[in-house]
TrEMBL record:
Belongs to the proline racemase family. It comes from the Bacteria. Coiled coil: none annotated. Its EC number is 5.1.1.8. It catalyses: trans-4-hydroxy-L-proline = cis-4-hydroxy-D-proline. Gene3D superfamilies: Diaminopimelate Epimerase, Chain A, domain 1. Keywords: Isomerase. This is 4-hydroxyproline epimerase. It comes from Rhizobium metallidurans.
């Protein structure tokens, strides 16, 4: 369906010519508001085992950490790919190459460590006026997607007393307000630009975590996982501010209590920015198989949304 081109170009071609596939899979009645997926392709790069296009309700992402953990787990267990080196895979994503190591236990993928794309703090202490919240100070960080990183402050005290719906509403208003004052562009890939995600950060509930977060993406979605690219962006922000050093871990807890084990693997220059190399330890489980039909006789064949 897509020509044999780099994944960053394939992503643009898919969005331009084949976006009905994403809508049919992600929208109702086959999907839902927080649906996401991954499509496996042969790699264009010689140094990668396979390529992945990440899809969700709002579009095609440059990178998805939780999606990578899931697609590696499923692809290995189902025999969809054959790694050149057992225990490791190199994946071509629209954001670049990512390396993943995994362990097998009793015939299943037990755990995964994702070595994500180089991440960095793009802009710090951005002041933005958000309706119903007031003035917020946020950082803009990149971890595979650009994020607004929000920590507790005068006009946002943290998660206590807040519902997921309220976080979504605040995130929508924050993103709209930021769009008028901030348009980050990746220094090495101009196809990646704009703040489309937000990560709200607070103290953890679990003794085994260092922080707790809610990742907002799409139109009205809160990530059920701690967020792979979000955790990477959070670590990049902390590292740039001298609060997380090379070799240190940042265990990020989701709203449902699951934890990603982040670690700063090293430092790297990303254009004019000093960045870091993040890794994420996580797991996924295959919970089913599905056969999807798209019938052109159906007036709702390509899906629908209720806003």
């Amino acid at each position: 369906m897509l020509p044999h081109r780099p994944m960053s170009e394939r992503r643009e071609i898919f969005v331009r010519d084949h976006d009905w596939v994403r809508r049919a899979l992600m929208f109702e009645p086959r999907g839902h508001d927080v649906m996401s997926g991954a499509i496996i392709y042969p790699a264009y790069r010689d140094d990668c085992d396979f390529a992945v296009l990440f899809i969700e309700v709002s579009g095609c992402l440059p990178m998805c950490g939780a999606g990578t953990v899931g697609v590696v787990t499923a692809a290995i267990e189902e025999g969809l790919i054959t790694p050149r080196t057992a225990g490791t895979v190199a994946i071509e994503t629209p954001a670049g190459r990512v390396d993943v190591s995994y362990t097998i236990k009793d015939g299943f993928v037990d755990a995964v460590r994702l070595h994500n794309v180089p991440s960095y703090l793009h802009q710090s202490d951005v002041e933005v006026e958000v309706p119903d919240l007031g003035l917020l100070t946020v950082d803009i960080a990149y971890g595979g997607n650009f994020y607004a990183v929000i920590e507790p402050q005068r006009n946002w005290k943290g998660f206590e007393g807040m519902t997921a719906s309220q976080i979504v509403e605040h995130s929508q208003r924050l993103r709209e307000a930021l769009a008028g004052i901030c348009d980050p562009v990746h220094p090495e890939n101009s196809r990646i630009r704009g703040v489309h995600h937000a990560i709200w950060c607070d103290v953890p509930l679990s003794n085994g975590a260092d922080g707790r977060s809610a990742v907002f993406y799409g139109d009205k979605a809160i990530d059920r996982s701690p967020g792979g690219t979000g955790t990477s962006a959070r670590m990049a922000q902390l590292h740039a501010k001298g609060r997380l050093s090379v070799g240190e871990h940042y265990r990020n807890e989701s709203l449902i209590g699951t934890i990603f084990d982040g670690r700063v693997e090293g430092t790297v220059e990303i254009g004019p920015f000093q960045g870091m190399l993040p890794s994420i330890g996580a797991w996924a489980r295959v919970i089913g198989h599905n056969t999807i039909y798209v019938d052109d006789r159906d007036p709702l064949a390509h899906g629908f949304q209720i806003r």
